[in-house]
Model the fold of this input.
Amino acid sequence: METKLMVILNSETQTAAIASAVSLLRNGEIVAFPTETVYGLGADAFNAAAVEKIFAAKNRPTDNPLIVHIASYDQLESVVTRVPDTAQKLMQAFWPGPLSLVLSKQEKLPAITTGGLSTVVVRFPKHPVAQKLIAMLGTPIAAPSANLSGKVSPTVASHVYEDLSGRIPLIIDGGPVEYGLESTVVDCTTEPPVILRPGSITLEQLRSVIPEIEAAESDGPLRSPGMKYRHYSPTAPVVLFIGNPRKTAAAMERYQLEHKERTLGIIWHTGISPTARLQYRLSFEPDLASPKLFFALRSIDENHPDEILVQGFDQKQTGVAIMNRLRKAASTIIAV
Done:
């Protein structure tokens, strides 16, 4: 299969790209498109055969539920049976945006879209291309991240092409994404609601709306993407250093000296003078670091290092989501 890459340069190229994507989606195909979180790989959420193509293209286990993306509250009614008061408050505060909600699903939504569950994960993205694509199609789009299953999520179109070229017919290139982390997922079928996956909408922000909201235990129900399988992993093993920045910097320096014979990639933010040729410095501030995190992992990994050393972040605000992704990516965790 030939994969076409359509770059959005202006309103004219945007219209053409979206029209091409809508035509493919209406014919049961899948397309990759930008959202504010990461690039998504979408199909008509109500077309089971089309949704199956997502799982095939990604090599994704079929019991891993997809997020259904909407572009209006009318579309929400087509996929859920009820919206609890807590969900309504969260929608008012954070939609459109990087927040996904677990709700009870309509029976007509195919089981493959929801991983065989009685619930559905729903999001109203704020990215203009995603919104216009869904609105023009006229039906919700089921879309996980547009990468091979388990690999690092794509934040630029070229990374989608690296993973899925020859597997899908179209990629819409809308430039780098805004947040660089998959959406926060909150289960609103429980009382109080539970955060199943941290993201750019933080616990503190959520508690400003729903003070009693809780974070899920790791062994809780698997109602959200990203809970059951290993994710966000480069080809090279990731060694994650956790602790305060001064100690992690010193430990990473020692590790480099002790492994001079190895080709090491370094992703860092504070207190290090890397000797490694392959390195990427992130901001110390998690909000500024998150849009570049996956890009950094992929950029270093494409140079085939023996290992990638990563300096951890404080688990506050967006740092919670960053560390969630890094822990899932890591082969080794060194606490100092």
About this structure: The radius of gyration is 20 Å. The chain has two domains: 4-84+100-180, 238-335.
